[in-house]
Specification:
about 200 residues; alpha+beta; two-stranded antiparallel ribbon; about 15% strand
Length: about 200
Amino acid sequence: MVAYIFNDLISKAESAGIKRDSRNWFRKQAQAVNANPALMLRSQANRLTSMPLIGRMYLFRYDPKGKQKLPYYDRYPLVIPIGSGSKTGGNASSGGSFLGLNLHYLPPVLRAKLMDALYNVASSKTFDEKTKLKISYDILNQASRYRFFKPCVKRYLISHVQSKFFYIEPTEWDMALFLPLDRFVGASRNVVYKDSRNRI
């Protein structure tokens, strides 16, 4: 299913003479795709992993601890891990939790701006399977170009992850970024976006 979504968008771009580095085109097209996160997590077993790596992008199913006290939460986070459960860094797989940027918390325009800034810290400009983002909470907190990141920072308990982590390849980041995969519980998408804008 996932390969179909990404490959379909790529084929559509090639037919229209759109280059692979045309981020805005892919982002706009992805927003119109009917994507199901539960189906995505059941497809392509070779993409599934038990533990996320810092600087990569993943989709997973999550059931937060103390969810009754939360105003809202995302059942299917699209996350770039940035460190261990503390804000001081570390490996995403160390301990029982990790910090991640859940990009679903930003409205599409701000999501694009943050991702464009993050591309500046990519380990490679070829965006092959080894590419990752060289980021940490401290790096994000110190640069004004990343100012949109704060509403996205969430701590995830490994014990409350209800699926394996679905790896999104770097060449697919712009497409995955705008696929309608978020499933907020407790509030509408628009309420979440409004709160995020207020935090920024």
